[in-house]
UniProtKB/TrEMBL annotation:
It catalyses: N-[(R)-4-phosphopantothenoyl]-L-cysteine + H(+) = (R)-4'-phosphopantetheine + CO2; (R)-4'-phosphopantothenate + L-cysteine + CTP = N-[(R)-4-phosphopantothenoyl]-L-cysteine + CMP + diphosphate + H(+). Residues 11-220 are annotated as: Phosphopantothenate--cysteine ligase. The lineage of its organism: Bacteria, Pseudomonadati, Bacteroidota, Flavobacteriia, Flavobacteriales. It comes from Flagellimonas spongiicola. Binds 1 FMN per subunit. The chain holds residues 182 to 401 of 401 of the full protein. Residues 6-215 form the DNA/pantothenate metabolism flavoprotein C-terminal domain. This is Coenzyme A biosynthesis bifunctional protein CoaBC. CTP binds at D100, K110, P126, D127, I128, L129, F144, K158, K162.
Length: 220
């Protein structure tokens, strides 16, 4: 493994959706497949890193000597797992689609249906990436942004607010980009506002591009 660009580096990656319980059998979730995060983990491991992959509920699996996969369910569990490892981490990438809101009260028993409408009260769930940005020492911290308008501006705003070193923007306007699919079209933006736009590619190719951008910057 001598000479690999990420040897002796510890990498933290979040992937997939989170599920927020309503009662013992119901949850709020989203359609994230986890593919982008798993591809980023695989690429980092093949480049020599020790990878801590924190994954929400997904059908994906990965077995690799350099990858420690930890499965979680809720945003709170993902938050706790990330903070458990963060001190020893060199590069962290938040690729998970974390639920922004969760039910304020979780019913202990399965909720019975009643006549009429039901209103669920939701509260904000923890912003994992924001909390890592606040805690950051020497870690290189990367976030994702899915924007539908003022994409560059919003992504840059997110980068600053969450104290990131770089952000990966995927535009929903681009066919084949983003959630669930096999391909993605990204723009990589660093904290110095250096911007690089890539062509539509498969997610393994996108993972490779993202790592190339990160490696240039951590070795500079
Ligand atoms: O603010 P927004 O949710 O658009 O930011 C997206 C980025 O923040 C992604 O990298 C996502 O993984 C991360 N995030 C997080 N915890 C949340 C919400 C978003 O880590 N609760």
């Amino acid at each position: 493994k001598q000479g690999l660009p990420l040897q002796n580096k510890n990498v933290l990656i979040t992937a997939g959706p989170t599920q927020e319980a309503i009662d013992p059998v119901r949850f709020l979730g989203n359609r994230s497949s986890g593919t982008m995060g798993f591809e980023l983990a695989k690429r980092a491991a093949n480049l020599g890193a020790k990878v801590f992959l924190i994954a929400g509920p997904t059908n994906l699996d990965i077995v690799h000597e350099n990858i420690q996969l930890e499965r979680v369910t809720s945003a709170q569990e993902m938050y706790d797992a990330c903070h458990k490892y963060f001190d020893q981490i060199d590069v962290a990438i938040a690729a998970a689609a974390v639920a922004d809101y969760r039910p304020k009260h979780v019913a202990k028993e399965k909720m019975k249906k009643k006549a009429g409408d039901l209103t669920l009260e939701l509260e904000r769930s923890p912003d994992i990436l924001l909390s890592l940005g606040k805690r950051k020492q020497n870690q290189f911290l990367v976030g994702f942004a899915l924007e539908t308008e003022n994409e560059l501006e919003n992504a840059k705003g997110k980068l600053e607010r969450k104290h990131l070193d770089a952000i990966v923007l995927n535009s929903l306007k681009d066919d084949g980009a983003g959630f669930g699919g096999a391909t993605n079209k990204i723009t990589f933006i660093d904290k110095n506002s250096q911007i690089k736009t890539f062509a539509l590619k498969t997610k393994p190719e996108v993972a490779s591009d993202i790592w190339e951008e990160i490696i240039t910057r951590i070795h500079a």
